[in-house]
Description:
The chain has helices at 11-22, 37-47, 54-60, 73-80, 99-105, 138-149, 162-170, 172-189, 194-215, 219-226, 232-242, 245-265, and strands at 4-7, 30-33, 50-51, 63-66, 89-92, 111-116, 126-132, 152-156. The chain is elongated and about 70 Å long. By secondary structure, it is of the alpha/beta class. Strand 7, helix 6 and strand 8 (152-156) form a beta-alpha-beta unit. Helix 7 (162-170) crosses helix 12 (245-265) and helix 8 (172-189) crosses helix 9. An 8-stranded mixed beta sheet has the order 3-2-1-4-5-6-7-8, with helices on both faces. The mean pLDDT is 96.
Amino acid sequence: MTTIAVLGAGKIGEALLSGLLDAGWGPGDLMFTERYEQRCQELTERYGVRAVQVAEAAQTADVLVVAVKPQDIDPLLAELNPLLKPETLIVSLCAGLPTALYERELPAGTSVVRVMPNTPMLVGQAMSAISAGAHATAEHMDLVEKLLGSVGKVLRVPEAQQDAVTALSGSGPAYFFFLVEAMIDAGILLGLPRATAAQLIIQSAVGAATMLADSGEHPVTLREAVTSPAGTTIMAIRELEKHGVRAALLAAIEAARDRSVELGQAHHG
């Protein structure tokens, strides 16, 4: 088994550890680093996985999954530089950080794969987009796909598309939460208790998502199947169009992409 160290076991790091254990990795093949002692104990008790120092992770693991906050990346790379073995694979889960940053700050020839995950990883339903750095091989990409496949779906994209991916699927869950929140408010406006409105909308969201995922039908086809002539749904759709909801989404996702580009540039050096 490949030995994997998760550097930074926050929510996403923990979700990955949990998924790897479920997918058949043994606790002995996994390790993690975490600066808070209490958090280390908590995770070790929960999963039976060892907490280690960065130095030990760098010397013993085949794959280092970097899941620290982007602002903590510089000291981590400085610490890793003298310790890294040439064959170690770096898997970056840090939003906005280009593979070029790792390749510049770590020894020449270091293999890096960049991943944009999202928070549904916490329930095994992540959408992760992966991109190869200059030295990552086909085998490395297969391995990363297998790792991330333990917590959801995986897509390969050229690194130039990662800012767009960040805006769509990285931030994507928040747009759905926002929409559901607004729809629950609408239910309250119509006189339903909050709990009733929430139950109606959340299950409708789950059902709609399942139909999208399983039916293979185009969203337009699925929407048209709900929209009968001169019925209630078309009246609602007309209002959404009148208020420019489609245009608002285009603008919102473009703004998220632009911010992602900006954050990445801070690290292009």
